[in-house]
Design goal:
This is Cysteine--tRNA ligase. By secondary structure, the chain is α/β, with parallel strands linked by helices. The strands form three sheets. A two-stranded antiparallel sheet has the order 1-2. The protein has helices at 39-57, 84-92, and strands spanning 4-7, 12-15, 23-28, 32-33, 61-66, 69-70. The N and C termini lie far apart (52 Å). Helix content is 30%, strand content 26%. The protein is elongated, with a radius of gyration of 19 Å. It has one domain (4-92).
């Protein structure tokens, strides 16, 4: 079975051809964890989990990498005593 994907540049469905035959690499930007999970977070997990499982079912070897951003140490917080994650945790507990 061939997988066809939509190419938004050409506005055509095209047969999926990985760079390395039989292998697919996926990098997905994960959630920025600083508050409760919301529908936007879940949509990413579900969408790419579905793609991953489809590729595996079709016989591809898949390397699936996802990051999770440490929101407690964003650059605009500074380095000392200004951790958003810790502040929010203290407010909720």
């Amino acid at each position: 079975m061939q997988l066809k994907i939509y190419n938004s540049l050409t506005a055509e469905k095209e047969i999926f051809k990985p760079i390395l035959e039989g292998n697919v690499g996926m990098y997905v930007c994960g959630p920025t964890v600083y508050s409760n999970v919301h529908l936007g977070n879940v949509r990413t997990f579900l969408s790419f989990d579905f793609i991953y499982r489809t590729l595996m079912h079709l016989g591809y070897k898949v390397r699936y990498v996802r990051n999770i951003t440490d929101a407690g140490h964003l650059t605009d917080d500074g380095d000392v005593n200004n951790d958003r994650f810790v502040k929010q945790t203290r407010l909720e507990n």
